Amino acid sequence: MRGKKEPLYRKENKVSLNNKYNVVTGGEFRYQRHTKAFLKDDTPHGPMISGRFGYDYTPLFKFLLSKVGKEWDLVYSEAKSRLDKEDPIFWLVAVHSHQKRDTVRCGDSSYYSGLFVDENGCLQKVNPDADLHHIKTYWNETLSFNGEVLPR
C-alpha cells in the first residue's frame, strides 16, 4: 500500500516471556469447572479472556514531540487520521491551561514532556527545560523519558 502512512499505535507485546499477559495465575477455576454445582448453574460460561488487550501509543508520543513548534491543526489532523481513537492525543496535549503538566506519566515507567497549544496555534512544550532530573526514581527501577531509557 504505497502512500499510506503507518499507524501511530501498535498492539502490546503479548508473546514475549516476561509480560503481564503471559503470567499464569489462579487455578481455582480448574477445581470447580466439572463439579455438579457448576454444571447445574444456569448462567452462561463464556471465555476466560476478553480478546482485546491494549495498544502501545509510544509512536504517537514520539510523533507529537517531533512536531513541537508546528501548526496544531495540521499535526492534529494527521495524528487523528493515523489513530484508532482520539483520546491518546490529549494524554500529552493539554486542552485547557489548568491541565498543563511539565511531565506526563504514560504506563508504568514511561514519562513524556507535557504539551499545549499556544495562542498562535502552535504545539509547544509546557516546560522546555524539563529533563531526566525532574523525575523521581526508585531503586532498581527502569524508567524512560521521551522514549530514552534513564541511566540508573
Jot down its keywords.
152 residues, alpha/beta, 3-stranded mixed beta sheet, 5 helices, 16% strand
What does this structure look like?
The protein is of the alpha/beta class. The protein has a domain at 56-149. It is 22% helix and 16% strand. It contains five helices and nine strands; from the N terminus they run βααβαααβββββββ. The chain has helices at residues 28-32, 36-40, 58-66, 72-81, 89-92; strands at residues 10-11, 55-56, 93-94, 103-106, 110-113, 115-117, 123-125, 144-145, 148-149. The strands form three sheets. The protein has a four-stranded mixed β-sheet with strand order 4-5-8-9, with no helix packed on it. A hairpin with a 2-residue loop joins strand 8 and strand 9 (148-149). It starts with 9 loop residues before the first strand and ends with a strand. The relative contact order is 0.14. Mean pLDDT is 78; it is low at 46-52.
SSE layout and pairing:
Blueprint: E1 10-11, H1 28-32, H2 36-40, E2 55-56, H3 58-66, H4 72-81, H5 89-92, E3 93-94, E4 103-106, E5 110-113, E6 115-117, E7 123-125, E8 144-145, E9 148-149
Parallel strand pairs: 3-6, 5-8
Antiparallel strand pairs: 1-2, 4-5, 6-7, 8-9
